[in-house]
Specification:
Blueprint (H helix, E strand, L loop, with lengths): L1 E6 L11 H4 L4 H15 L2 E6 L3 H11 L5 E5 L8 H10 L3 E5 L21 E4 L4 H18 L1
Parallel strand pairs: 1-2, 1-3, 3-4, 4-5
Helix pairs in contact: 2-5, 3-4
The structure holds ligand CA2.
Ligand CA2 binds next to loops.
């Protein structure tokens, strides 16, 4: 199985500020964590981070026929991007949403997730661990669909 893991804007700056919300580890540590979690689950993984909405839409479109599933933390675009929602719906690949922080307990503008509307599951507030959970869930979900 081959998964695409997408991280959205500013996640590349992880560890620089707001450690009480996002933790002290940097983005390189997150990438290593995701690679380890994928290896553990026996899935191949490509990691993609971009700060631009259109680049994320392009990457989701290009995932069609290449990847079996998508793990996505759209970061701030979670709460604004109908374009990312539409791209996820268009490719119709099973997708799992991840947030490091528990967005349900934060500002009201973070209470809506457009991308989440096209995802089979959301993990939030688990820090890096959410990505591991997402990868495992997605593998099982796809295996279940194929059975
Ligand atoms: O909790 C999450 O994973 C978020 O997707 C992170 C986004 C935020 O806009 C979402 O509401 C929830 C922010 C990602 C980057 O934030 C940084 C802030 C300061 C320093 C470095 C990164």
């Amino acid at each position: 199985m081959n998964f695409l893991v997408i991280n959205g804007p500013n996640l590349n700056l992880l560890g620089l500020r707001e450690p009480e919300i996002y933790g002290r580890q940097d983005f390189a540590a997150l990438q290593s964590f995701i690679r380890r979690a994928a290896a553990e689950a026996g899935v191949e993984v490509e990691l993609f981070q971009h700060n631009h909405e259109g680049a994320i839409v392009d990457k989701i479109q290009a995932a069609y026929g290449v990847f079996d599933g998508i793990v996505i933390n759209p970061a701030a675009y979670t709460h604004t991007s109908v374009a990312i929602l539409d791209a996820l719906k268009a490719v119709a690949l099973p997708a799992v949403e991840v947030h490091l922080s528990d967005v349900s307990k934060r500002e009201s503008f973070r209470q809506i997730s457009y991308a989440g509307m096209a995802c089979v599951k959301t993990y939030m507030g688990l820090g890096f661990e959410g990505y591991r959970e997402a990868i495992h869930y997605l593998r099982q979900y796809i295996e279940g669909e194929r059975a």
